[in-house]
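Long-time lurker, finally posting.

We've been working with Glycine cleavage system regulatory protein (Gordonia defluvii) and I want a structural starting point before designing mutants. I don't trust myself to interpret raw outputs, so I'm hoping someone here can both generate the structure tokens and explain anything notable. Sequence follows.
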Amino acid sequence: MRHLVLTVIGDDRPGLVSTLADAISAHGGNWERSQLARLEGKFAGIVAVGVPDEQADGLLIATRSLPELEVSVHAGNHGHGDTEGFTHLTIGVLGNDSPGIVRELSGALRSHGLSIEAMTTDTREAPMAGGLLFEAHFDVRVPAGTDLVAVRDELERLAAELLVELGIDDQGTGGL
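Top reply, 14 upvotes:
Generated this for you. Predicted structure of Glycine cleavage system regulatory protein:
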């Protein structure tokens, strides 16, 4: 069994997921995990697929020739990777939109050796004050031995500088 990661993008329209799923299924593939979204009129996503070795080349040809989608195929690593010795944090951010919020927060996480496993961001109209609100949710992988107090201190300092609200939920980190 080969494990592939497909990245897809195309103009949003009904049936794109079905078209991709049909191509995967026609080659004996199994749609294992995915994250898909509509952004700025585009449909974009990443899909992990398992496919029998003898069907992999046919699946590559079929997905790359879909007229509605641009598909890139990458070799995958089955499973979710080594999770031993790691815990997770969920971080939420909400505040007035301004350039650099993601750069600052992701840089702080990187400086402590933390890895972002999933991130969603959005902007929306501020209901009372006008302007745009920025909202982000980070799922972060934390290696054992990380100084969680230092991580929290730096994130809180950045939140104050960026004028955003910060919420941190530890998931088995011993309390942040």
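Before you design anything, note these points.
The chain has a mean pLDDT of 91.
DSSP finds four helices and eight strands in the chain.
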